[in-house]
Amino acid sequence: MAGISSLGVGSGVLNSDLVDQLVAAERKPVETRLTQETKRTEALISAYGKIRSAVTDVRLPMRQLGSPDALQSFSASSSGDNVQVSVDSAKASRGNYNLDVTQLASGQSLASGSFVDRDSTTLGQGTLNISVGDKTTNVTIDSSNNTLQGIANAINDADAGVSAGVIDTGDGYRLVMSSDDTGTANAAKISVTDTGDGNNTDASGLSRFAFNDTTQNLEETVTAKDAKMSVNGIEVTRSTNTVEGVVDGLSFTLNDTGQSQVEVSQDTQAVADKVQAFVDKFNTLKSTISELTSFSPEAGGSLLTGDSTVRNIENQLSRQLTSVVPGLEDANVRSLADVGITTNFQTGQLNFDAQKFQEQLKANPDDVTALFAEQGRTTDSQVEFVRSGTDTQPGEYDINLTQTAEQGGFLASSTTPASVTVDADNDELTFQVDGDTTASIQLTAGSYTRDELASEIQSQLNGSSALSSADKAVSVSVDGSGALQFNSTAFGSDSNVSITSVDTNTAADLGLSTQSGTAGQDVAGTINGRTAQGDGQVLFLDGDAGEAGGLQVRITGGSTGSRGSIQFIEGVSERTVDTISNIVGLDGALRTKTDSLNRELENISDEQQQLNDRIQSYRERLVSQFSAADARISQFNSTQQFLTQQLATLGGGNSGGGGGN
């Protein structure tokens, strides 16, 4: 190629411009074709990408309708400012409740006597033993922290369940302690080991900070109180001003005493808005497809006109959205059309009658829920549908029990006296619950009947932070013989209750001693004739167990033997989500099509490289041929010049001789 600049010197014709023209003529047809194929392939990839994005956008709102909770939206209002209410729609139901708040929960506050300074005066040494609920903390006071401020800092650093500070009253300084949590169970008791003067109860040295059942050297400026209220005449007590678990799905926040009425109503508009979100996304998909597949006599077809992949996607979605849901053939609501979601046959888009939908949701909530979400309908009221698996197929499946679930626990080995007195020698009990949770309680001193003692123990266990943080609980009752019965509220082989330690006279006075409980048992039986596994009250099949694989039911009571059947219904949402996932998945039609087009681009790129190589070879061949021809022509020209010169010379000599004759 270095010599191409000298082309044409010999001939004047076979030059580099002619090479460029011949090369361009050779390249143009193929390159034009490859450019057009590249643009079309890239346009198709972009078009399928738009459809994939639009299809994916339909999945989210449809998935949000796939849970029964999504079809059960509730709202609540309170007539008074003294009570605020929040709703968990998954658990709530319609109703009216009269609330009368008679007392708000408060945390305890304690205050010391007055001191002349906060940082200089030494106040004794020893140990503060602080008990709050079932937590006991020892705070060491020595020469490094035995001032008023030092004691406050030491208490705060110990995380003892109380917070301390120093207040300047104007007439002196006072140490104040406040419970971190409200409620009588979180009131602090402080005992002192005074190593300074050896007296643990007098009003001097470190013992001036003692406050317990026998010694009150601190002033209780605020008494710990539980929140008290009645709900429809039923008395309720809680340690905090947030009251949960009284009415399913409702949480009350108490701001003041007084009466108010709470109304819980179904929020059908909120559910209709979720359906509208799905309809909007589906119509956007239809608009995208219409734009990419449209045809007109004037403009002709669009990029994907007549495309079988797109047509197949439309058919799959249409079948899911227009067919009757299996299992609802005889129901009041069988298809989307029954709840106001119909197809515009001109555009293929969906029309949504929100008013009709809300009317059907109110009139037939169970059927509307099954229309969208998965649902299990049981013939036994004590059998509940929990969930399905990815392999569970719609259908009816028989349930048979060989063993019912039981709660672990124990019956006290001794009866409790009809009347008991609780004091400092028999008031402490420690329980082991469900294998790994320890809960220590301290009973309130006083006289109790047998039933009152059971209620007191129950109240202390209900207020145990160790149990509540582990989401565990214990039920306490009195059996016919007068012995106390303790059971875990959980079911299954992991549930149990034991007493691991008691106070000095607890066994003699209350009839309670250390005792190990018996573990509960898991439910056992079959589903659809296949042996199922049990976890507490839940009976379930593994995912590979045939048509019912992954199905889970909860047995809340009853006996062994046949427990009827469960009809599993897979609603429109779940089926549509599965269809979309298949369409856009790794093995889906869109991914397959896009992968094929990307391979075409790779082939075009390879063909382009082959063209470049062929054109390069063609150019080199032309240059070589032109160079050889140009050299030959140059030789011919040189010969011509030589002959011309020779002929000219010969012609000149003849002319001179003739003149001499």
UniProtKB/TrEMBL annotation:
Residues 224-637 form the Flagellar hook-associated protein 2 C-terminal domain. It comes from Tamilnaduibacter salinus. Residues 594-621 form a coiled coil. This is Flagellar hook-associated protein 2. It holds the Pfam family FliD_C. It comes from the Bacteria. Keywords: Bacterial flagellum, Cell projection, Cilium, Coiled coil, Flagellum, Secreted. GO terms for cellular component: bacterial-type flagellum filament cap; bacterial-type flagellum hook; extracellular region. It is found in: Secreted; Bacterial flagellum. Residues 11-108 form the Flagellar hook-associated protein 2 N-terminal domain. Required for morphogenesis and for the elongation of the flagellar filament by facilitating polymerization of the flagellin monomers at the tip of growing filament. Forms a capping structure, which prevents flagellin subunits (transported through the central channel of the flagellum) from leaking out without polymerization at the distal end. InterPro entries: FliD, FliD_C, FliD_N. GO terms for biological process: bacterial-type flagellum-dependent cell motility; cell adhesion. Homopentamer. Its main location: secreted.
